[in-house]
Every structure is written in C-alpha cells, then in structure tokens.
Write a structure and sequence with these properties.
This protein is 28% helix and 38% strand. By secondary structure, the chain is an alpha+beta fold. Strands 21, 23, 24, 25, 26, 28 and 29 form a seven-stranded mixed β-sheet that branches. Strands 10, 12, 14, 15 and 16 form a five-stranded antiparallel β-sheet that branches. Strands 1-2-5-4 form a four-stranded antiparallel β-sheet, with no helix packed on it. β1 and β2 form a beta hairpin. α5 runs antiparallel to α6 and α8 runs antiparallel to α9. The longest helix is centred in the C-terminal third of the chain and has 29 residues. It starts with a helix and ends with a helix.
C-alpha cells in the first residue's frame, strides 16, 4: 500500500471526538535556575500570553515545543498531542514567589493555566554583563530542538579544557578536565573523541566518567544559558623540565534537529522527522611550564612528588630460626605513587633476604594518585638472638613546601627464638632426600625402557592415544581461535542481552524519578544494540542508517518502523519539559520491551 494512501486512511480513522482541553503550569527546580513550563493539550493553540515575571530574570524563552503520539491498542487508534511554552528563569529575591496564570486560545476558546509557587533561597545578582538576554544579534534561545538547516556555531556548542595548574614541578600531578558547553536549543545526542592523545614527555592516566554518563548542569556564560558537563579527564605527570605541550583534541558531536519539511506520511515512516547532524569541535593545545626539581637531590630521594607518610612494621608475631618472616613498609599519600622507588632496607648480615613484593591501592584524584603502596620484605634468620632493622629513610619532594622532606620509620627490634629444626637437621634431611631419589629414578627408567620398547603393544597404543589427543587439541584450538577472532559474531550474540541490561538500568533511573536521564539511557541502549549487532560506531548511526541495517537482518518492516519511531520519541522526550518526559517515559519503556522481544 502506498505510504501516503496509508497515512490518509490512518488520519481519517483517528478519533476525532472532542476532549476536555487542559492548560497546566509547572515549575521545576534546576539548582540555581528554574524551568517554568505551560502545556496545553493541543497543537493548534495561539495567542499565548505569559504571566508577569517581574520577580525573575528570564534567561531564555519562551521556547515552544510540540508533542504528538499515535497508538494502536486492540484495534483502536488513539491520538494525543500537546504544545509547551518553556522559560528558564532565575529569582531576583528570596522567599515565597507566586507566578500567576498564563492564557492561550484554542479553537476560539481562551484557556487559563493554574498558578504555581516556589520558594527561592538563592536569588540572582544581576549585572549588565550577565543579563538573560542574548547579546549576539537578538536570537531567542530555546530549550526545544533546533530546526533542520540551522547552523551549529561555535557559540552554540564548544569544548574547552581546564588544567588544575599550568606551572608545575617535574612529576607533579596536573588534572585536565574537558567540558562541553551546549546552548539551550541545541539537541546534543552524543560526543566521541576522534583519537587518543599522544602525551609526549608526560605519563598520563584517564579518569573514567562515573557511570559513563555525562552529568549536565545549567551555566550562564557571556549572556547565554548552557548545559555544561565533563566529558573527559586526564591526570598527567610531566617527566622533564621546560615548556611541555598538551596536544589539542578533536571530538565528533551528533546534534539532533527537527525536520518539519516532511509531511505527515514521511514523518511517520521516518521516525518522527528528526535528523542527526555531525559537527566537529576541537580543543586548542595547552602549554605547561615545568620547573626542574631542586638540585642537589638527596641520595635517598624516592622519586616521590606530592604529600606522603611512611610506616614500617613487623608482620610476623614470633621469629624463629629457619622460618620465613615479613617486614612491611607502607607509603600513603597523594602524588605520583606509581613512580616511587622501592625503599632500601638494611637487614642483619646473617639473614637470607628475598626480593620485596609490591602492592598498589590507588585512585586518581585532582591532586594525583591517592592511596597507598605496600612493600613486603621476606627474610629468614638462621641464628637465634637479638637483632635490629635500622630506621628506613623515605625522601620525597613537596611542591607545597618547595623542599625535600625526609621521613623515617622507627628502628625495629627483633628477638629470634630457636626453631624446631636446626640448620644441620635441614641439611641432613636434604642429603637423605637426594640419596633416596636417585635409585628410584634409575629403577623407574629401566622399567620404562622395557615397557616402552619399540614395536611393543603398549608402545603403539600410547602413540595412537597421543596422536588422537593431539588431533582433538588442534581442532579445539582452531575453534577457539576462530571464535576469538570473530569479534563481530561475539558482539552480535551479546547485543540483545547487553541492550536488555542497559534498559533495566535505565528503568531503575526512571523508578528513582529521573525521567530525562532514564530516557537518554534508553535511547543509548537501543542505538547500542544496532552498533553491537553490526559492528558500527554509534556516532555514525542515524535513524535512517539504523533502519537500513535492520532491514539487512530480515527483521519485519513493522518492527523496524516502530524501532525508528522509538529513537525519534526518545530524542524528543530528552529535551521536553520534565512533566511531559515523565508521561512519555512509561510508554517508551513498555514499547522497548516489546521491540527487544521481537529482535531477539
């Protein structure tokens, strides 16, 4: 059936019965700001008149966004739609503030919203340089999604890097924080680092983003309101003095825009008419001024730069001859923990001492690696008596104090008791073992020569058994290697299971009252399923691309269309007002479960 004919029949079959019009106001606390939304259950509203907002600084708005949904349930078709007018506002005073009703005209009838109240505790301090008006040509900022064809400028979306410091000593930690700034009205879908940076003369460690989810917050910059979040963090340790360059980075960003040029039928079959636009953003190189550590360096310098404590302790409660014992040195603090050298411990001369075992327990912080290092020294005393492990010096450089700091452990007294066996007993036992082993081995060798003589039945049986075992082993290894090489196949087999786990995690966010983040996680689970199934980067997947890929897998056309609509609805709901997103979330999750069952 022709798409346009189907759409015409669908439109004529929609329920046209009149329903009670609703015009509701809702205010949501965003921290320093508030989102004020007015929603009417019709897309044909006009002549919107807002209430007085004299007690607020209007940062953006009114942003206009619409929502439309068609559902087929038990052969019945239902249609719902709404239109929202959204402001981002900041109170000018503290205390209880009441916002009066707004009005709008629908079908010749004037509707009035309810009044809403809020309690402001942090009033804004307005100034000419931080006003809520756009100072770049008078364009009205919008919290809705941009229309297709709208250029995404550097003012609309940019990424910058902030170092914790730019002048440091060698080995001193520097935290690099890369933040993305998205202006209201720009529908950011995802951001991907183009390639890993090459940090020359720097030791680096990436700090994972908690939950692998960018946490966005509202920020007012240069007269515009942005959603800002940390997308990447690196901890770097300069390895040489002088001017060191932090390389510039490039990111691929996908921005969702609404294409209203599509008619109803095309929008229905193309997931609601939203498109993904690829833009690239770069961060300029950054220069660090690295100072050389003061000279001369102390002879016992550990290589540590930061703040540390040191402790020495004997772990063995009782020392006996010819029994292994353990002495431990623990270094705790913050700095370049992984570059600290093993402390030198002087043991009594008649002790056997083995190489120390090192264990690291650290986490990356803004000041460097924080945690502790443990060095375990195993030694064996051979004579009873009283001994001493002298104090161990630990020397590090403190950038805060601009000097080398020497810490020392306390001397450790050792009282060694006589063990159960003397050194002579041990030596005699070893000699006895050696003498007993030799004839047993010789006799066994002679017996083996007789049994495994060439041409005997056992000889041929063992050879056949070994050949069979080798054949089976080779087949198993080849099968394992083929399975390991088939990364695409393994991803496909796990794609549905991984997607369901992500959907369950998103549902838990929804149950916790976080509707918008939950919808974002649901959208990522759906696109992640396609990326894993077809081994394609998520940044390259548009709605059209995903539909084409699913068709190659032989999935029913109806399922593909519903999948595409789910993606479009998720993109819309992520930037819709909170109340509207919460209403849509339950329906989206229910539909997602059905679609994943059909894709399995």
């Amino acid at each position: 059936m022709n798409k346009r004919l189907f759409a015409l029949i669908l439109t004529m079959s929609l329920t046209c019965a009149a329903f009670a019009q609703k015009f509701e106001a809702q205010v949501e606390n965003l921290g320093k700001y508030y989102r004020l939304s007015f929603t009417v259950a019709s897309k044909d509203a006009e002549h919107f008149t807002p209430p007085s907002l004299a007690d607020f600084e209007v940062l953006s708005g009114p942003a206009q966004s619409s929502y439309s949904s068609v559902q087929f349930v038990n052969g019945k078709v239902t249609h719902s739609e709404s239109l929202s007018f959204t402001y981002i506002i900041r109170p000018k005073k503290n205390g209880q503030i009441t916002i009066g009703p707004a009005s709008v005209s629908v079908g010749g009838k004037t509707l009035r919203s309810n009044s809403v109240s809020l309690t402001a505790t942090q009033a804004s301090q307005s100034s000419g340089g931080r006003s809520g008006k756009n100072q770049s040509g008078g364009m009205v900022e919008s919290s809705g999604v941009q229309q297709s064809g709208t250029p995404v400028t550097q003012r609309d979306l940019f990424i910058d890097v902030t170092p914790t410091r730019t002048t440091v000593y060698e080995q001193e930690a520097v935290l690099l924080t890369y933040r993305i700034h998205v202006r209201l009205g720009v529908g950011l879908a995802n951001t991907t680092l183009t390639r890993r940076p090459d940090f020359k003369n720097l030791i680096s460690q990436e700090i994972p983003i908690p939950g692998n989810e960018i946490q966005m917050s509202m920020e007012h910059l240069n007269g515009a309101t942005y959603r800002t979040g940390t997308i990447l963090q690196y901890l770097v340790f300069p390895q040489k003095a002088g001017a060191l360059t932090i390389p510039g980075l490039s990111f691929d960003c996908t921005v969702i825009q609404q294409d209203n040029s599509l008619d109803f039928a095309d929008a229905f079959f193309n997931g609601g008419g939203s498109i993904g636009v690829q833009v690239q953003r770069s961060v300029k190189p950054l220069t660090l001024t690295v100072k050389e550590l003061p000279k001369p360096k102390p002879a016992a310098f550990s290589g540590g730069v930061g703040r540390f404590n040191v402790k020495g302790e004997l772990l063995s409660p009782e020392l006996r001859t010819n029994e292994p014992c353990t002495y431990r040195i623990t270094v705790e603090g913050t700095g370049n923990m992984k570059l600290i050298a093993t402390p030198s411990v002087t043991f009594p001369k008649d002790f056997d001492v083995y190489d120390p075992k090192t264990e690291e327990q650290t986490e990356a912080t803004a000041e460097g690696l924080k945690g502790k290092l443990t060095f375990d020294y195993t030694f064996v005393p051979h004579n009873k008596g009283d001994y001493e492990i002298p104090a161990v010096d630990f020397v590090y450089f403190s950038p805060e104090e601009n000097r080398y700091v020497t810490l020392s452990t306390k001397p450790t007294k050792l009282h060694v008791l006589q063990g159960t066996r003397s050194a002579e007993d041990v030596e005699r036992e070893m000699e006895l073992r050696n003498s007993d082993i030799r004839p047993i081995i010789a006799e066994a060798d002679a017996q083996s020569e007789r049994v495994l003589a060439w041409g005997s039945l056992i000889y041929w049986s063992l050879n056949l058994l070994l050949a069979f075992i080798a054949f089976v082993a080779i087949k198993a290894v080849r099968k394992y290697m083929a399975a390991e090489a088939d990364t695409v196949g393994r991803k496909r087999s796990k794609a549905v299971r991984t997607a369901r786990k992500r959907i369950d995690a998103a549902r838990r966010q929804l149950q916790a009252g976080e509707a918008v983040p939950a919808i974002g996680a649901l959208r990522q689970a759906l696109s992640g399923y396609v990326a894993d199934t077809f081994n394609r980067p998520e940044a390259e997947l548009t709605e059209e691309t995903m539909s084409e890929l699913l068709q190659t897998k032989g999935i029913a056309q109806d399922t593909i269309e519903r999948f595409a609509k789910m993606i479009a609805d998720c993109d819309f709901a992520r930037y819709a007002p909170q109340a509207q997103a919460a209403t849509m979330a339950e329906e989206l999750f229910a539909e997602a479960d059905k679609i994943m069952n059909e894709l399995a």
